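Incident review: delayed structure delivery

Summary: a single-chain prediction request sat in the queue longer than the usual turnaround. Root cause was a stuck worker, restarted by the on-call engineer. No data loss occurred. The affected request and its eventual output are reproduced below so the record is complete for anyone auditing the incident later.

Affected input:
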Amino acid sequence: MSSGLNDLYQQLILDHNKSPRNFRKIEKATHNAEGYNPLCGDHFTVFIEMDGDVIKDVSFQGSGCAISKASASMMTTAVKGTKKEEAEKLFEKFRSVVTRDIHKEVDDLEELGCLGALAGVAEFPARIKCASLAWHALHSALNSNGAVVSTENANAH
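Output delivered after worker restart:
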């Protein structure tokens, strides 16, 4: 990755951390789930308002490091207005990119849009859980409404 692109990605992450999008509670949420990383203390709740199989609105609240907050912010922006199935596919794509073998190139990073900024966390194993925490909470909210997910569960990486 070029130095200029790396700098742009860093700025995008810092912007989403400083001014997170959709950082609020949805009062009419039809689904929600908590995500917690006991090793570093990151803790977020994801709220979803579904309209049929479409994510009408999505938000999050909580606290965490810059990576986890930026990831949650970018996630809510990316999945708002999508169908559940599309959000689940994006979750799988995102997870495969941040947990990939760092010696392999990512062929279809463009599919992630701004989420591609987080691809670099694959180089820092301790940060993978930070980047994926809100995503696991989203997945849980979409599939088992209300469950608490922990980065220390077998499925949370």
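Verification: The longest strand covers residues 54-63.
Action items: add queue-age alerting; document worker restart procedure.
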